[in-house]
Write a sequence for this structure.
């Protein structure tokens, strides 16, 4: 071609965080003829918005060139009719990104799109490579220029300039070299690839759209809004290629076992998504039932920290016989603004996010169910809010074990000094929160709720043992995603 097959359409800036574990990223891919694939990708990303709120991007191929657009912000802030109109073709990938503090900038937004000897390449990535620093140094030594701080750019450059005469071969070589967590959607001129790391740390699934269309996504909840049907999960270690001939498994890389992220089951994935054939909502209700059996409380009402803890609170109420009620109303849009609160609003803090229903709380002993406590920044203010609304007692119950260790495999789980359960005992945390009692679900109870074998999960953030060797990394040099 006389000009590059990459067509850039982009620009941007900004971000914000909370006490919950940092979300990961959402990846999406589609191959379908005679359809507006950019629009379908937009709605797929919209369904995956919970996995990342800092940037969004779409890359589309028409068989000759790849056009792409990405920007800082939510999916609906980044894309409108004008931005989608030039993105024409029959195969596309999309990405919505969460990052740690300091890496919220446009050069780290995805998909990454580069030109290579085999033609244009676009990559979307969810996860974190544990040997990213070594791979980055290797690229820089070879003279490859890097513009951002994410391991996703390293993956893109490894594929673009790596060994192999075909994309199939380059992806196989990449999987031999890469260590850690990665779910990839990879777009070339003619083919959509879906790649999942051999440990299966994070989810990736395949769906069908009509007679000849195919879709891949981080979660099955992205299929319903575009009329696609869930087919199966991408297997751990699988490289799946999708083109005119449909899906084809290129390779199935071996691994010593599985190590799925338990936080997908606790918090990250949407409750209407399915993992191993079961809706996550049902598993989270089961977590609440296990919690009620392990940590009963004498109380009048069970409430949830909305929205993520609602299924567990329902399960706690079912198993304990204590009525479930709404006690907190969440402002679902306060976290979606780029307007920062002033000093006065920072002081009222939690009231920006939650309002208490005093009529449901006054004079009552309350079980407050949350799905996790990471830094402990918001739990104390919530307990105070319930007391101000008239609750006579507040018993905090958490449907995950204490998080005592950071995550190095794609989740922003905070550092050791930031983790409240690392520096305090459970009685100390209870006093810090101002609760009447505090109890966590045991790791055994959590795993029982999944109905899976204990050796199929990564438990690193709970016990400090990880399924892969962790390479020390300076946070300023490499941002965990």
């Amino acid at each position: 071609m006389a000009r590059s097959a990459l067509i850039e359409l982009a620009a941007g800036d900004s971000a914000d965080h909370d006490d919950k574990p940092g979300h990961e990223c959402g990846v999406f891919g589609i191959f379908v003829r005679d359809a507006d694939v950019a629009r379908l990708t937009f709605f797929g990303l919209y369904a995956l918005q919970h996995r990342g709120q800092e940037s969004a991007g779409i890359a589309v191929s028409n068989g000759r060139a790849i056009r792409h657009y990405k920007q800082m912000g939510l999916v609906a802030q980044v894309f409108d009719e004008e931005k989608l109109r030039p993105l024409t073709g029959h195969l596309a990938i999309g990405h919505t990104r969460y990052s740690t503090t300091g890496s919220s900038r446009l050069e780290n937004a995805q998909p990454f799109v580069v030109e290579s000897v085999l033609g244009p390449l676009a990559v979307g990535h969810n996860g974190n490579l544990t040997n990213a620093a070594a791979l980055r140094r290797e690229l820089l030594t070879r003279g490859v220029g890097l513009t951002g701080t994410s391991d996703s750019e390293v993956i893109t450059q490894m594929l673009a300039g790596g060994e192999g005469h075909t994309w199939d071969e380059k992806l196989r070589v990449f999987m031999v070299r890469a260590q850690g967590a990665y779910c990839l959607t990879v777009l070339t001129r003619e083919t959509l690839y879906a790649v999942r790391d051999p440990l299966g740390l994070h989810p990736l699934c395949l769906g069908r759209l009509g007679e000849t269309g195919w879709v891949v996504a981080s979660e099955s909840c992205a299929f319903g809004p575009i009329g696609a049907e869930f087919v199966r999960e991408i297997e751990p270690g699988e490289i799946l290629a999708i083109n005119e001939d449909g899906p084809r498994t290129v390779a199935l890389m071996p691994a010593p076992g599985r190590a799925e992220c338990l936080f997908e089951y606790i918090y990250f994935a949407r409750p209407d998504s399915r993992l191993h054939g079961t809706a996550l909502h049902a598993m989270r209700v089961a977590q609440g039932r296990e919690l009620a059996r392990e940590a009963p409380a004498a109380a009048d009402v069970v409430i949830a920290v909305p929205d993520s803890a609602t299924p567990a609170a329902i399960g706690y109420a079912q198993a304990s016989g204590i009525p479930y009620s709404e006690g907190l109303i969440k402002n679902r849009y306060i976290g979606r603004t780029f307007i920062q609160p002033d000093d006065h609003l920072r002081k009222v803090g939690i009231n920006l996010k939650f309002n208490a229903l005093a009529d449901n709380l006054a004079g009552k002993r309350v079980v407050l169910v949350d799905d996790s406590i990471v830094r402990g920044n918001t739990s104390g203010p919530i307990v105070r809010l319930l007391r101000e609304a008239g609750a006579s007692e507040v018993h905090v119950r958490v449907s995950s074990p204490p998080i005592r260790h950071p995550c190095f495999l794609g989740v922003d789980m905070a550092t050791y000094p930031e983790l409240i359960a690392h520096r305090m005992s459970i009685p100390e945390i209870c006093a810090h929160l101002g609760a009447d009692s505090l109890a966590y679900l045991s790791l055994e109870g959590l795993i029982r709720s999944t109905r899976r074998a204990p050796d199929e999960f990564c438990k690193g953030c709970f016990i400090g043992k990880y399924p892969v060797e962790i390479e020390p990394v300076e946070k300023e040099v490499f941002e965990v995603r």
In short: The two ends are 35 Å apart (CA to CA). Residues 103 and 344 are 28 Å apart (CA to CA).
